[in-house]
Amino acid sequence: MAGQMMSLAALVAARESGRQEPDQMVELARDAARRHDSEIKAFSHLAENPAIPREGPLAGVAIGVKDILDTFDMPTTYGSDIYAGYRPKTDAAIVALARRRGATILGKTVTTEFAYFDAGPTVNPHDHAHTPGGSSSGSAAAIAAGMIPAAIGAQTGGSVIRPASFCGVAGYKPSYRLLPSTGMKHFAPSLDTVGLFAASIADVALFAHLLTGRPLNPEPVEPATTRVGIYFCAELESADPEMQQALERAAEAATAAGFLLMAVSEPEENARARQAHTTLQNYEAGMSCGPDLALYEERMGKKLVATVKEGIAIPPSVYDDARRAAKRGRGATRKLFDEVDILLTPSAPGAAPEGLSFTGDPRFNKLWTLMGTPTVNIPCFKTKSGLPLGIQAVARFGKDRELLSVAMALEQAFAERG
Fold first, then answer.
1. Would you call 242 exposed, middle or buried from its count of C-beta atoms within 10 A (0-12, 13-18, 19+)?
2. In contact, 226 and 342? CB cutoff 8 Å
3. Can you tell me where the transmembrane regions are (predicted)?
4. Most buried among 58, 195, 382, 396, using CB within 10 Å?
């Protein structure tokens, strides 16, 4: 079962008060990883003697980095045997930023191969027979298992929000390009978005704030003037009954907390944009991963090979049509946020599926990745069997602080309703 999660806010407060030194903070994480990772398999590599800066806003904060992001001092395998032992010469931009801010890179977290659907060995800390989700499998599981207080992941379809939901942690996909993606093994560059994980909304917002230096720490919100919309799309009917009930409970809790609640119907342009996501993703995967396919097809996973081949076969005119559909969807999305401040949807169709080969379905996430809007998984409810169910909050592009502020208030409201 999942362990006691580490609170980033509590660790930083202990450091600021002098109760914990950076090396003591990092040792807590190293000890937890030594005790738990043989079962969870969240890390593909653990640093033997990680550097522990004593200065910087993230001094003493041990983090995991998804293994599609380059690290100069650790292997970077992109979840693939093809790159076993590969050592880049430099860090990815987001890793270099974390180091400059004082973070300790504890290790590389497991990703699916090239961040697609061919799963790695990581298990769900809540039930080892269930998937942790993907592709940021290890990042979410390491947080849920209490091994580290913060982690970096990435999302092309639903690879931050979905594993966060399955593992019961906060996963934050910022507005597109708020965090740098240079030094990532790209799958679909117009979609690939670096994201963050922590135990709670307060913790992931603090991580984003300390990492970037941007004012992303939540502000108090006034529920009576905050418009929260329940987003009704055709996909909602396909969600599991317990997830549908969780969304209903979220709506009830938001209303009880005083938020202005409304129903929002999906514009047709957004429905078409969601369908265009696969074309955009696969075409770009054909471009990004085609060179790997040409040299190493026999060593690549079957799902990955099929998708890259499909992408290579897509005519440019079809890709351009998909780009136009995405542009129209973004226009419709901007209009939506003239009427509402935050949208709520399921973070996934249901709880984590049983088995480790299927990492779950991104149907509730990929539209918002394509739109470039900030989203966050609010860890809040559970199934009767005890598996987590998350609610996804979405805000207008660039309104990341507003998203995190409202999500933190909603997280508290959901907790009060049980």
1. middle
2. yes
3. none
4. 195
Q: Which domains does the chain have, with CATH numbers?
A: 8-212 (3.90.1300.10), 223-269+323-417 (3.90.1300.10)
C-beta separation of 394 from 343 below 8 A? yes
| Cβ neighbours of residue 13 closer than 8 Å, sequence gap 6 or more | none
Q: What are phi and psi of 344, to 5 degrees?
A: -120, 135
pLDDT at 418: 63
User: Is 357 an annotated catalytic residue?
Assistant: no
The DSSP letter of residue 127 is B
Burial class (CB in 10 A: 0-12, 13-18, 19+), 224: exposed
Q: Which of 159, 175, 181, 200 is catalytic?
A: 159
Rounded CA-CA distance 136/166 in Å is 11
| 271-293 tens-digit pLDDT | 999 999 999 999 999 999 999 99
Catalytic entry in 135, 139, 288, 347? 135
Average pLDDT over residues 52-67: 98
pLDDT at 281: 98
Question: Which strand (E) or helix (H) includes residue 359?
Answer: none
Cis peptide before 139 (omega within 30 of 0): no
For residue 320, the tally of other CB atoms under 10 A from its CB is 12
Q: In what order do the strands lie in the sheet with 375-382?
A: 43-46, 104-109, 62-66, 150-155, 193-198, 170-173, 375-382, 388-395, 342-346, 227-232, 260-265
For residues 352 and 349, give the distance between their C-alpha atoms in angstroms, rounded to a whole number. Answer: 9
- Residue 405 is among the residues annotated as catalytic for this protein: no
Are 246 and 389 a contacting pair, CB within 8 Å? Answer: yes
Taking only the tens place, the pLDDT of each residue in 122-164 is 999 999 999 999 999 999 999 999 999 999 999 999 999 999 9
Q: For 155, list phi and psi in degrees, rounded to 5.
A: -135, 130
- Identify the CA nearest to 108 among candidates 147, 163, 68, 53: 68
CA–CA separation, 116 and 156 (whole Å): 9
Phi first, then psi, for residue 390 (nearest 5°) are: -105, 155
Active-site residue, 159 included: yes
Q: Mean pLDDT for the chain?
A: 97
Contact partners, residue 352, CB within 8 Å, separation at least 6: 124, 126, 127, 130, 131, 132, 133, 166, 167, 360, 387, 388
